[in-house]
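The instructor's notes for this session suggest beginning with a concrete chain rather than abstract definitions. Hand out the sequence below and ask the class to guess, before any prediction is shown, which regions might be ordered.
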Amino acid sequence: LSFIPEEALKPGVFNVPTYRRYTEFVSRLKLIFTARTIETRVAVLYPILSLQAQFTPSTRSMYEPHPRKDINFIDGAFTGLCRSLLQQQIDYDMVDETSMATADIDEKTLALGERRYDVIVLPPMDTIRVSTMVAIDRFAQAGGTIIGHARLPKYAADGQDKDTSIRTTVRRLRRSGSLLILDTKVKSIGRLVKPHLALQVKLSPMRKSILYTALKNGAGTSYFLVNVSAKRYEGSLTMPGAGTPVLHDPATGKERWLRPQKTKHGQIRVLLKLRPFESLLVDFR
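After discussion, reveal the predicted structure:
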């Protein structure tokens, strides 16, 4: 903490009042998230094995694109898919193949530890472990939803003698309709994912700059929203909920009651205003 006169502070160094506001804001965020559990129902498989299978040493700088086009394609398309999910108010967890091997299937739900997922998203990938493919197949047979990029697994990380089993499983999933395929621009991700999520929100008008996550505790579900743009947002938020919605501002600690409207589907709609880079929590009492 610096007590140098404000005009003498270096860029990135806060003065005392600003630093106090910052620490109070972070403390309130910590209270919000530690008192609740993130309720994410979408699992995105991390395609690290496909990148490792394609990787060759390069003399280029780490800041330059790799010379192999396949690596750049998988990396770029994976990033674009994850960004598209967030921009369509679909929160997700990244899951690795080691965890997938220990997954339990509970009806149409994939269970990893305390997490439960309704949808598995396969990013662009060509290499996968047999154990991961078995878990995905079990999830599909239980009625789970799998959404995959057009570049699907065809090689087994366990060895070439296992490639046939990977390709056979992928063909069976596609024929059964359990595996839905994204278009090449991944813009269909929201249209394919959202119908399979019991808990979802709707912004009107929809904005890519508004990110959202659902938080649960014993009292019910809360909705945390962030405006990541320099433009103000004004619209409406429609969500499941019971009780009266309360708006909590972690920047000030202030709360105010909202005036809800009931939709014909039994959800709650409230007016929502977010200043540039503002975050707010909608709770129910």
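Then share the key points. The chain is about 30% helix and 30% strand. The longest strand covers residues 210-217.
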